[in-house]
Amino acid sequence: MPEEKITFVNGEPAKCGCQMEFSSGGGEYSDVLYVMPCPNHSPKSFGPVEVKRDKDGWWWHPGIPELDGGEDPAPYRAWVAEQGLEVKGWHSGDETYDLPEEDAACTAWNPESPGPEWFLMGIFDTEDGPYVQWARREVTP
């Protein structure tokens, strides 16, 4: 895919809304261009959003892209790595209690975050029952 060029004419904002400032440096340093990207050209930051579970208790982060809807986890793992995320998840039965028999969905399950820096990626059904997944920005030493 070819890269899009953002064009500034006579110091005016680009048609998309990106803006630019120029500084000659006043003779003390090199010319400097400052570019303030418009919303369409700003990096999309993925992070926490408001969680509104459906009537059955399921929820999926709306910022997670459709990845061909297949069963292959490789595209999802690649996207998570590209976002710089660390993910952690578990099934409802992995906790100290199990869901009530009458709760075939997961309305009674309210898994706790692994820590304050973690945000919810989703609560969804799997062959092994309800599953929760949390994410945080990768911690670099």
What's this, in brief?
It comes from Pseudomonas monachiensis. With 141 residues, this protein is mainly beta. Helix content is 6%, strand content 26%.
| Count, helices | 1
DSSP, total strands = 6
Question: How many whole angstroms does the radius of gyration measure?
Answer: 22 Å
In which order are the strands of the major sheet placed? 3-5-6-4
What's the number of domains? 2
CA distance, first residue to last residue: 34 Å
Round the mean pLDDT to the nearest integer and report it: 81
Main sheet characteristics: 4 strands, antiparallel
Percentage beta strand = 25-35%
Structure class: mainly beta
Which structural traits does this protein have?
four-stranded antiparallel beta sheet; 1 helix; mainly beta; 141 residues; two-stranded antiparallel sheet
